[in-house]
Amino acid sequence: MTGITAARSQDYPARTATVIVPFAAGGPADVTGRIVADIFSRYLGQRFVVENVVGAGGTTGAIRAARAPADGYTILSGHLGTNALAPAFYPNLGYDPQKDFEPIGLTAEYPELLVARKDFPANNLKEFVAYAKANPEKLNVGHAGLGSVSYIGCLLLHSAIGIKPTMIPFTGTAPVLNAMLAGQVDYECDPVLGTLGQLQAGTVKALAIAAKKRSPLLPDVPTSHEQGLPEFDIAPFYAVFVPSGTPQAIVDKLADALSKGLNEEAVQKRLAELGAESVEQSRRGPKALADLVKSEAARLLPILKAASEK
To answer: How far apart are CA 48 and CA 116, in angstroms?
Structure first.
């Protein structure tokens, strides 16, 4: 590190920084990104402004972040899709999720739910599997775009059941739900937060949570493990990254600030209200995140590559 770079790292942050959220406002990615920006603003004493850069399953925003100067002033609040699994869906991706980013730390994990329209014939996962196997050509599945967590979740479900139904892309969770309420879409797979309001209103129904333990927000919804389909297990990570080559001193400052923020009771409460699993101390920081990206890519890429080949 040159003297100038070292001095700059010590002064960091000296001006406003941008947190890129590669998805539309209002969804889990956006809410998580805003929590992150707020933590950095408070602990590092400068403004961290969220910019929603949407398109191509989050990869448009991820490319912009990957190509930004490696100076700590452009940060990506990415997730399982953008930073581990995108190569399965975008052969000419334009960035390498593992080589073009330095991990800062894990923010949250949101277990996914299988949610169906209110009058869907199945009322639990066993009935769903039986119906899906008998009527795969009748099913319409909504998702928030190729490579989005809702797309990945349902691909994993279909792979576990052995079906390839019609998958219909939308621009986000809200339009998927609107289509489901209108009866155009049969089901979707999405983090708890995305569908919680509709579930509480009784306009859609949850058949399973794709996890080992039930969600405190929906204690009556049985898990995929309880219902005999453990392969449907997905809690996408949401995490913070900076472009490769960012000085270590800046990486350390950001990782430290994020961890301090995650220790706050108010932040933990907010994330719990969103249906997130809290991140224990041992799973925080750059190394733990790098390991998580590698292990999830190794677990899911082969399944997703096979499932997305029609």
So the answer is: 38
| pLDDT, tens only, 19-48 | 999 988 877 889 999 999 999 999 999 999
DSSP H or E stretch at residue 168 = strand 166-169
Q: Is 0.85 topped by the overall pTM?
A: yes
Cα within 13 Å of Cα(187), Cβ side: 30
The three-point CA angle 232-237-240 to 5° equals 165
Query: And the tokens for 28?
Result: 């889990």
Q: Contact at 8 Å (CB) between 144 and 176?
A: yes
State the greatest distance between any 2 C-alpha atoms of the chain, in Å, as a whole number.
68
Tokens matching residue 62 = 């991820």
Distance CA 310, CA 291 (A): 31
Q: How many CB atoms lie within 10 A of CB 111?
A: 24
Dihedral, CA of residue 221, residue 22, residue 48 and residue 43, to nearest 10: 40
Write the CA distances from 237 to 8, 90, 112, 179, 197, integer angstroms: 31, 20, 11, 26, 22
DSSP state, residue 144: S
Q: Helix or strand or coil: residue 283?
A: helix
Residues 6+ away with beta carbon under 8 Å from 129 = 161, 229
Q: How many Å apart are CA 181 and CA 15, to the nearest integer?
A: 45
